[in-house]
């Protein structure tokens, strides 16, 4: 594994992605439901999940925030991610984070901050890591 991306750049990429995609999904929610926010599971929840699974496969490990921060998700061996990889990373890991009431998510953040390879629980489940594309 070469040039693993650290906690700060990954956090910033997720925040950027959340803002950009969140605004778009809010408008879609408004079109479907007449309001910018719905508490119940909606079509935009499905679109958000599909975005996190499909876009990195099509865009070679990038989503909007990661592209802007010049980092991407790759398999541990450096190959591009697949649909199965992203399902493991998003859905299976998401279920684990939910089942542990967020404790596994906090552990993952600590892992990215302190581990040399910067891998979180979802990276171990999917066999991935987040690679910095910048040369230092």
TrEMBL record:
Membrane spanning stretches: 12-34, 46-65, 86-114
Coarse class of the protein's main subcellular location: membrane
Keywords on record: Cell membrane, Membrane, Transmembrane, Transmembrane helix
Record domain RDD: where: 5-127
Localization (cell): Cell membrane
Membrane topology of the entry: Multi-pass membrane protein
Top-level taxon: Bacteria
The protein, known as: RDD domain-containing protein
Source organism (scientific name): Pontibacillus salipaludis
């Amino acid at each position: 594994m070469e040039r693993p991306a650290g906690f700060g750049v990954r956090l910033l990429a997720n925040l950027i992605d959340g803002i950009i995609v969140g605004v778009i999904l809010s408008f879609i929610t408004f079109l479907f439901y007449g309001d910018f926010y719905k508490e119940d599971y909606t079509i935009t929840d499905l679109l958000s999940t599909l975005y996190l699974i499909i876009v990195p496969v099509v865009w070679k490990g990038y989503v909007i925030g990661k592209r802007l921060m010049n980092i991407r998700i790759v398999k541990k061996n450096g190959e591009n991610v697949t649909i199965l990889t992203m399902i493991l990373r998003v859905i299976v890991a998401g279920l684990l984070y939910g089942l542990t009431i967020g404790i596994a998510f906090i552990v993952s953040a600590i892992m990215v901050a302190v581990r040399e390879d910067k891998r979180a629980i979802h990276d171990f489940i999917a066999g991935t890591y987040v690679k910095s594309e910048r040369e230092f």
